[in-house]
Amino acid sequence: MAQQALKGLGQGQVGEAFWLLLLLAGGLLVLVGLLAGYAYQQGWVRALEGSVRERGMQGPGLLDRWTMSGVVGALWARDLRLFFRDANQAAQLVLVGVLVLLYTTSLQYLPLGEVRFQLVAGFMHLAFQGFVIGGVGVRLAYPLLSLEGPSYWMLQTGPVSKQTLLLTRFALALFFLLPLGLTLGYLSPKVLGLDANLTQISLLLALASALATAGLGVGLGAAYPKFDAANPAEVPLSTGGFLYMALTLLHAGMLVLLASRPVYLALVERQSSYLTSPEGPLWLLVLVLVTLVPVGLALGFGYLRMGER
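Structure (tokenized):
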């Protein structure tokens, strides 16, 4: 609709699409105003009178039940509450959603005709997929331990081991990165018109990239923390941050090398099921090793450095 309206305006014509778009924009603006007024009123009333839960009118929610389930559940509940209360952090998720939308939409408009061009575009997607996830991880995974700030030293006085703290950071990073990776890994091949064979490869590589990004981010973030950072954007500006980006790009490059084999066979030999071929199990084994070894080493290194503090 927007394209048709702009095309008409470029030709000096105000068509039906322009008026429909103007009506839609006005309606959305009114709707946003109504929602903002309602949210402001509810927030003002609750700030004056106290929350509903404090007056006993509402039962405990999911995060409250997690808090009562044990140390791990309490840490997850606390982290999620703090994350979504911080406007800067919560805005990162919105930006990630916009990034996925722009990425998949741009793929839709690639001038692809023959199958070979689709396969080449699919290979380029497999290459960029790891870079995108790694770039998001530098803001969502690497700063997780540093965001504890001075409260990190308070946690040391409680019944929370360093191993538990590290693994809960890793799980929290996966909570953010896995949906991103799987969404990219599934939607992009569908937009490009790739077959089920390369869609499976894309999903596996996306899963591997999310795991590696979370492990490298949390492990190196624990090894090189910055507890005095004023905001999350300052945390990666350190030796550990540059090391994280270098290793993440290296891992993404290794995934590209792994992806080249099934894409080559699909292009040259028209192979439609690489994972069930004789090479498939060996390829999966190499993928698992390439992913889990860096994750284990990074988390282990971070744990050892945490023990020094």
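The chain has eleven helices and no strands. The radius of gyration is 24 Å.
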